[in-house]
Amino acid sequence: MSPRIVLITGANSGVGFATAKVIAQASENFHTIIACRSLEKATSAISDLKKEETKGQLSPIKLDVTDEQSITEAATQVHQQFGRLDILINNAGIASQHPDLKTQLQQCLDTNVVGPVLVSAAFRDLLLQSPNPYSIYISSGLSSMTKTLDPASGEHFSLWKTYKISKTAVNMVAVQEAAEFRSTPLKVFAVCPGLVRSYLRGSSEEDITFGGKAGDPMVSGETILSVIEGKRDGDVGKLIHKDGVYPW
Ligand SMILES: NC(=O)c1ccc[n+]([C@@H]2O[C@H](COP(=O)([O-])OP(=O)(O)OC[C@H]3O[C@@H](n4cnc5c(N)ncnc54)[C@H](OP(=O)(O)O)[C@@H]3O)[C@@H](O)[C@H]2O)c1
């Protein structure tokens, strides 16, 4: 049986790296394409992944989600090398802290919304070649409008306004794709990876661990593995997390 081809954007760090590790360690039935802003970051991530036993194959690719040429070239390369894509994980993301509000919002939208829209458009024909394709958008519980309006919710107030706007927008990207491709085998999910250690908030120990509150990104990887193994198919088209579904 030929392995299922998985592509993860932003796979050199945090949730993306941990997801690549979980998938590569899970089974030889996955061939994971490690997509990063530079080929050097991708090959270095693969070296790090191979420090532990991996069952699935790993390939590097350059893919900057804010660079249309890079997206087109990556899709062409996957087409030439594999002829299809089974699982696309739009994971790359930022939480811009730029002091200028307009720039901060623009940066969040460029990477977290425009990027995934263009990446999905470039890879969709390849996904539709798969007998069992998955399109996964890494979102956040912070994106939930229902939770934001609930004073009892942890998401009611957050300083991360521009990031939240971008993640709510990417939910709509996922929902529109689910609606548009309803009559195809494509399964679309928005996934909250949970609050986990990564460089999203900065590079100090305090930022990485969110003051000790952030969990292990390998748990996020396990959630995403459960999606691509079909264990969450009952929640297709929804904003899911490890233990259930968030309201939009
Ligand atoms: N960690 C959490 O608690 C948490 C919670 C909810 C949602 N999320 C989501 O999880 C996803 C991954 O973030 P993370 O927490 O793992 O943070 P991270 O450690 O900062 O990883 C982000 C990844 O995205 C990549 N990236 C940024 N801009 C890119 C671009 N223009 N093109 C390609 N790759 C780009 C980064 O590459 P470089 O190394 O080159 O910068 C890095 O590999 C994001 O979508 C984030 O919103 C995280």
UniProtKB/TrEMBL annotation:
UniProt xrefs under SUPFAM superfamilies: NAD(P)-binding Rossmann-fold domains (SSF51735)
GO cellular component term of the entry, any: cytoplasm
A family per Pfam: adh_short
Gene Ontology molecular function, alphabetical: oxidoreductase activity
InterPro entries given in the database record: Fungal_SecMetab_SDRs, NAD(P)-bd_dom_sf, SDR_fam
Gene Ontology biological process: secondary metabolic process
Domain of life: Eukaryota
Family affiliation: Belongs to the short-chain dehydrogenases/reductases (SDR) family.
The protein's name in its UniProt record: Short chain dehydrogenase
Organism field: Aspergillus sclerotialis
Taxonomy of the source species: Eukaryota, Fungi, Dikarya, Ascomycota, Pezizomycotina
